[in-house]
Amino acid sequence: MAEPWIPDVLGAPFEQRTLPLGDDAEGEVVATLVRSLPSLGQRMLAPLADVDVLYVHGWSDYFFQAGLARAWNDLGARFYALDLRKYGRSLRDGQTPGYVDSLDAYDDDIAAALEAMGHAGAERSRRLVLLGHSTGGLTLTLWAARHPGVAAALILNSPWLELQTGAVARQAIAPLLRAHARVAPLSAPPAIELSTYARAQREIGSLPAAEGRERWRPSEAFAIHPGWLNAVLAGHQQIGAGVDVGCPALVLLSARSMPPFRWVDGLTRSDSVLTVDDIARAATRIGSLVTIARIEDAIHDVFLSWPQPRADAHRVMRAWSTATLRGPRLARPRAVAATAS
Known about the structure:
With 341 residues, the chain is an alpha/beta fold. It has a single domain (6-326), classed as 3-Layer(aba) Sandwich (Rossmann fold). The chain has helices spanning 40-43, 66-74, 106-117, 135-146, 167-183, 195-204, 226-241, 276-283, 307-326, and strands at residues 6-7, 15-24, 27-36, 51-56, 78-83, 127-133, 153-157, 249-254, 290-295. It has a 9-stranded mixed beta sheet, sandwiched between helices. α4 packs across α7 and α5 packs antiparallel against α7. The model is unreliable at 337-341 (pLDDT under 50).
């Protein structure tokens, strides 16, 4: 049984609720749902007062983007964010941070979140918008394709839809990685330098004070194990073959990428994590109605960019969402059965 709503670490109006998911080899597994509900004033005459948003974070991350929640509340929508198992608020002592060996494992996390939001069981009158960043964008894209008709819209913030080395290299690497993952899924990972992205966020000033939360979002990022990377590449393979998310999709990307191997100021105005041109191409394979928006001077998380590109990203998201969700419904949203342990 899920625990009650309690105050969240972000402070009012945010609340959190722990969602039990059973046990695995490392012990108790939980997800954590965070919510911010619109005020009565925000709901009155709001264009999206019948909308619930579910946000899923990226790799080595957790939800802390209060401004993103406020933007949706200002439109009248109820905002929810999910810290997946072994991330952020859901990370327990003795667990391998962020580790799963299949992205399908998150079906239980998402089902538990939707049940807590009131989207399980009988058909609901409220519409669901899925919003995912980076690996969370990949996870939600695959989930939506497996659950067509549940979401009214999908919004992806720099989704990790393709390996940084491109499809050809991915196809060459995948068999070797698959074999390694079968034999030693948690073996010692290679050292990967990602601290320049954290520095870019610090230079911009987009990170909140997070005393005591360094373990949730380390500057060097979580260790990347073969079993987890194999799960991600399996997701990339599905995207490469083509999927259908069953709803309109908006993909927000930086205008350009830049290698992260040495510090230059341009890293504060580009995506230093993904190859955005490859992501834009991959995005054309996720459905029949996909809008791709390239945000000038944005970083990997477009909503953590400098004020101007951040405002541009919010403006595009707001205009697209109100136009898409105010119009005729393409299909009646249906409920998804709760499958969480």
